[in-house]
Amino acid sequence: MSSQEVVDFIQSKITQKDENGVLRPLSSIVEELLDQCLAPDTSGDGTGCDNMTCIIISFKPRNTHIPAESGKRKLEDTAAPAEENGSDNSKKTKLE
What we know:
Blueprint: H1 3-14, H2 26-37
Helix pairs in contact: 1-2
């Protein structure tokens, strides 16, 4: 793939949404790109047989998380209220 082909490939995938309507994670796009670049067999000229590295940098935040209402429950506040200072049962009686 040429550099422009890689850019075109990523641009076509970066706005795709999954079955839940969530944008695809960049890591899955990288996996698909590297699978496309992988040589079908090793008997050729060596293209696609060497180490490959790909980094996609997104400068804008992407919402790749499932909406909260369809996921886990929210943590409920179960902490007991703190006792007030100066209450009778917060101090021990001093024995002499």
